[in-house]
Amino acid sequence: MKTDSDADDRNAPVAAVLFDWDGTLVDSLPVVTEATNRVLVAHGFPALPADAVHDGMRLPTIPRMALHAALPDDEHARGLAQRMADEFYRIAVEVGQERVAFYPGVLDLIDRLAAHGVALAIVSNNRRSVLEPLIDVLGLRSRFAVVIGEEDVALPKPDPEGVLRALEALGVAPGRAIYVGDSSTDAGAAAAAGVRSIGAGWAAHATGGAALATFDLTCSVAADLARYALRRNVSE
């Protein structure tokens, strides 16, 4: 139930912006597709087109690998999915350190928010052990005060646990935060946490997609998000 204090928070300056990682800050679909297909083929399963891999990226890695390999729900299959996920993590870091790239305008967005004192965090269904080497390669370690990955929560998005953990670590109330993502699981996690959600319309695979309709607002370019987040923080 919303309270008067919630409404007051939402009218206050934005204190924190939380981001999904894959498909929001970075165009990681080529990396995830290559790593996924290398694992699938190594285990005798057919490679998948990028759109099928992207569809699975709403899930944490273990159930995603089970989905892509059409594994049954039994103990042997669960063990195989775990091994495939472990292989994926290793390959994704290897490939990602060479190929991961920001979407246009994202680095400027991060720099502008940080320059105005907005706290930044990442909340992803990917593993933190995969994200952190890529964050280092991109030179972003000092920008993000908190990184929450799938190993840090009991339940993945759309459960709000990761978003709420990040806010607690930042010391920011939900009403003073924004969560930015590209999938309905991101929008669902934000809504459940009481956080405003913004769809990353600059992501090529998300533009015009039905997932964007689940967000409170969509920004077509990263600069629009900076203007929205800072509209009450600074006089523009």
CATH architecture title of the largest domain: 3-Layer(aba) Sandwich
Q: Note the run of SSEs as H and E.
A: HEHHHHHEHEHEHEEH
User: How far do the termini sit from each other?
Assistant: 34 Å
Q: Specify the overall morphology.
A: globular
Task: Please tell me the overall pLDDT.
Answer: 91
Helix content: 40-55%
Biggest sheet strand order reads 3-2-1-4-5-6
List segments where confidence is low: pLDDT < 50 over at least 5 consecutive residues: 1-8
Domain module tally: 2
Number of helices: 10
Query: What is the C-level CATH assignment of the largest domain?
Result: Alpha Beta
Strand content: 5-15%
CATH domain fold name of the largest domain: Rossmann fold
| Major sheet | 6 strands, parallel
User: Structural class per helix/strand content?
Assistant: alpha/beta
Write down the Rg.
Answer: 18 Å
For CATH, the homologous superfamily of the largest domain is named as HAD superfamily/HAD-like
The number of distinct β-strands equals 6
Task: Write up this protein.
This protein is α/β, with parallel strands linked by helices. The protein has two domains: about 5-30 and about 100-230, 3-Layer(aba) Sandwich (Rossmann fold), CATH 3.40.50.1000; about 30-100. Helices cover about 45% and strands about 10% of the residues. It contains ten helices and six strands; from the N terminus they run αβαααααβαβαβαββα. The protein has helices spanning about 5-10, 30-40, 50-55, 60-70, 75-100, 105-115, 130-135, 160-170, 185-195, 220-230; strands spanning about 15-20, 120-125, 145-150, 175-180, 195-200, 215-220. It has a six-stranded parallel beta sheet, sandwiched between helices. α4 (about 60-70) packs across α5, α5 packs parallel to α7 and α6 (about 105-115) runs parallel beside α10 (about 220-230). The protein starts with a helix and ends in a 6-residue tail after the last helix. About 45% of the residues are buried. Mean pLDDT is about 90; it is low at about 1-10.
